[in-house]
Amino acid sequence: MANESRPCPCDIGDRFDYGGRGQEVQVGHIKAYVCKPPASTHKAVIVIHDIFGWQLPNTRYIADMLTTNGYIAICPDFFVGQEAWKPSNDWASFNDWVKTRDAGKIDKEVDVVLKYLKDQCGAEKVGVIGFCWGGAAVQHLMLKNPHLKTGVSLYGVISRFEDKHTLLHPTFFIFGEKDDIIPLEQVTLLEQKLKQNCKVDYEVKIYPGQTHGFVHRKREDINPQDKPYIEEGRKDMINWLNKYL
Asked: Where does the record place the Dienelactone hydrolase domain (predicted)?
C-alpha cells in the first residue's frame, strides 16, 4: 500500500475508536479534518465522506493512510454542518434526508478547499477520492472541475450521474461484486457509456465477493476471505493517485 520509505500504518486503526493523526481546522465556512505527511509535498487529496459524515473514523483512517503515502489529505464537512446519517436513523426517511444533501452541489465548498490547499498547504496538484455519496460527488467533480488532476470513486452511486460520462480527468471506479446498492448491470452500463464517450484515461474495477463499503471497512468487520480484496482496493487507489498526481 506504500513504498518502503513510507510504510502504511496498517496497525493504527480501521475501527470506530480510531481518533486520527490529523487535526480539525476551519476552512472558510466549513470544518475539515487535515492530515499532513512529515516531509513537505505539493500533492494533496480531498477525501469526500459517505452519508455518515466527515467525522467517521473509518474515513479519517483512509485520510491518514493517504498521508503515510506522501499526500496532504483533507476531509471537509461537505454536509456543511447538517447532521450526518446515523445507523440508528429510520431508513424509511432516507430518501427525504438525502434530497437535502446533493452530491452534485458541492462546488462552492470544493473551491474553498482548493484555495486553502494552495494558500495554506502549498498544494499544486490535487486529486479527489470519495466513498458512496462521496463517490458520486467525485464523478460530478471529474465531469466539471478543471482544477483537479484525478479522482477515485469508491462505490459511488452511479444512478446520480448515469447520463454523464465526458470526464475531464483520469478517473478510477471501484465497485464490489455483491453491492446491494449498486447492481452490476449499472456498472456494466457505466463501462459501456465511458467507452463510447470518455476521452481521458479511466478504469472500472469490480472486486469479487465484496459488498458496499468494503474499502473503508472497520478492521474488526473484515473477514479473512475479504482482506486481500480490501487491501487490493486500497493499494489500487494509492497506485492510481501516484500515477496521476
From this structure: 30-245
Contact assessment for residue 172 and residue 142, using Cβ atoms and an 8 Å cutoff? no
Say if 1 falls within a structural domain.
Answer: no
Q: Is residue 2 part of a domain?
A: no
User: What is the total count of domains within the chain?
Assistant: 1
Q: Please report, rounded to a whole number, the percentage of residues in the chain having pLDDT higher than 70.
A: 91
Per-residue pLDDT, 110: 98
Domain assignment present for residue 235? The answer is: yes
Length of the chain: 245
Average pLDDT, the chain: 90
d(CA 77, CA 218): 21
Model pLDDT for residues 234-244, shown as the tens digit of each residue: 999 999 999 99
Domain that holds residue 220: 23-244
In a domain, 5, yes or no: no
